[in-house]
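quick one before i forget lol
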Amino acid sequence: MIRILPLLLLIGAATPAPYTVDGRGFDRLQEAVNAIGGGEGTIVVAPGVHRDCAVQEAGRITYRAAEAGRAIFERVACEQKAGLVLRGRGSRVEGLVFRGYAVPDGNGAGIRTETGDLHVSNSTFLDSEQGILGGDRNVQRITIDRSTFADLGRCRPDENCSHSLYLTSGTVTITRSRFERGRGGHYVKLRAPRASVTDNSFDDTGGTRTNYMIDLPEGATGLIARNVFVQGPQKENPTAMIVVRAEQSTYPSDGLRIEDNEARIAPGQPRPTTFVVDFSRDRLALGANRLGARIKALEVR
């Protein structure tokens, strides 16, 4: 008697494509992006480590992990910038992991955003020079929610620094996210007229050569509230946690609300700090914040 084996056992099960758009599989991320082109669509990214990158030139594209936290983009940067270079009409990134980005100019990032609104959720940025970098001044809306930024940042011998998150935009909203173990620069640096940073955790206890938790170098209005800040023991600049308009007087800061935050200094940090350092001399709305020992509430410079 001759036994007939199922066809799949004879030829092997087909390997699913790493990227899928409306049921159509693609081997390269750029091919999937090009298939959407100037339209709108979703690229579903299969679990695994993807040493791949793409440039979005047009359209509105969602990049979504099939299983959140298990689709990992690693090391390969398009245009010597980032894993995703975004300059379409809009982009969404959901559930992806980006790690290990370094490029010659020291600004390797998981995402480089250049134009188009950007929404990032439930994503992770690890062990790179920058987490997310870029933006379109005064126009773009950027939202980051439930994401983690760890082991990011770098200060180079020329004194230029990369940061965990560095955005230039019209409006930036950061919610329910975690920043930890910075390796240089600031945790959040925003050149935007309007900023909202709420319900986040800034844990600097494992950081090295870090600077400010939040830097608004050109000023901003908006809200910084319900965040937890822990100043670590190995800072390059331990003098402040939040700094307003230290570089340029581009945007007014009248009415910037900083309230209902908790801040403390970790064991091993010998120097005191100031919660808010204000260079703007505008009328900041500094509300009630829960500050630990050796933290001054406000200093105007």
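fyi The longest helix spans residues 29-36.
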